[in-house]
C-alpha cells in the first residue's frame, strides 16, 4: 500500500512538472524572473489574451534573394555605446518615434520604413523629416518575398523595393503627414491601455493604390528611394560601423513566449515556445552589467516593454538576431 501511494505521488509530481504555464500569466512571469537576473519580465499583455493574437503580428519572412555582405573599413572606431537619437539630435524625433503596427503582421514593413525614415533624415542633415510610408510597401510590393502584406514579408525585400520602385511618404495613422499615412489605428494589448483593444481588431491587407490619401499631394512627387539594393553585413562590427555612418538598420529574429513579457534589462531566451519571426529596428548598442547588447525599437507602441524599446544580447546571435540584418542608404 505504501509503495502504491509513493508511486502515485511520484507520477502526480511528474505530470505536474509537464503542465504548460500560460505564457502571459503571473506564474510564467515570476518563473522567468526566478531563472535569471539579466532582464526583468512584467505584464505587457492581458493574461486572458490568446497567444494566437500575438502570433498574428509575427510577420517576418526569410529572405529569398542573396545579398553580398558589406564589409566596412576597420579604421572606423566603434565606441562602447551608441544611441542614434543622441548622435543625430536634428533627427531625434524621427529616430525616437515608436511605431504601432496594430493587429497586422506588418512588422517587416513598419520596421523597415521606420529605418528608411531615420536614414533620409540623417542623410539630409535633418531637413527631410516626413516619414516613409509603411502602407505603400505593405500593399504595393508584389515581390515574392513581401506580397503577403499583413500575413508577413521580408525586410530585405522591402529595402530592395525602395531602390527598385520607390516608396512614398506617409506618417502615422490618422495623421496628415505625407502621401499615405498608416491605415491601421493604434491598439492596446491589455485592459488598462489608452487605445482600443487589439483583440477586437482584424485586418486584411488593403489594396494597392498609387495615389495619395492626403489631399494636394502627388504620388510620384512623394516617392522616396534607396541608393542600392539591400545590404547584409559580414560581422557584428560591420553592423555597428554601418549604423555609425548611415543610421538605424533592421533585424529579423525568432521570437519566443518569454520575450512578450520583456520590461527592462538585456533580453536573452529563458523559457517558452517559439511564436514566430519578428522584424525590428536597431538604433544603437551598449554594455549593461558586463553584458553587451543591441538597443532596439519594437513596433507594439510605447506602452510595451521599456517605452517601446528593448535590449538584446549582442555578439552571440541571440535568437538568430544577427542572422538577418539589412539596410540600404537613402537617396536624397
UniProtKB/TrEMBL annotation:
UniProt keyword terms in alphabetical order: Disulfide bond, Hydrolase, Protease, Signal, Thiol protease, Zymogen
Stretches assigned to the Peptidase C1A papain C-terminal domain: 78-329
GO terms of biological process kind: proteolysis
PROSITE patterns from the UniProt entry: THIOL_PROTEASE_ASN, THIOL_PROTEASE_CYS, THIOL_PROTEASE_HIS
InterPro entries: Papain-like_cys_pep_sf, Pept_asp_AS, Pept_cys_AS, Pept_his_AS, Peptidase_C1A, Peptidase_C1A_C, Propeptide_C1A
Region forming the signal peptide: 1-16
Any one GO molecular-function label of the UniProt entry: cysteine-type endopeptidase activity
Matches recorded under Pfam families: Peptidase_C1, Propeptide_C1
Family, per entry: Belongs to the peptidase C1 family.
Protein name (Swiss-Prot/TrEMBL): Peptidase C1A papain C-terminal domain-containing protein
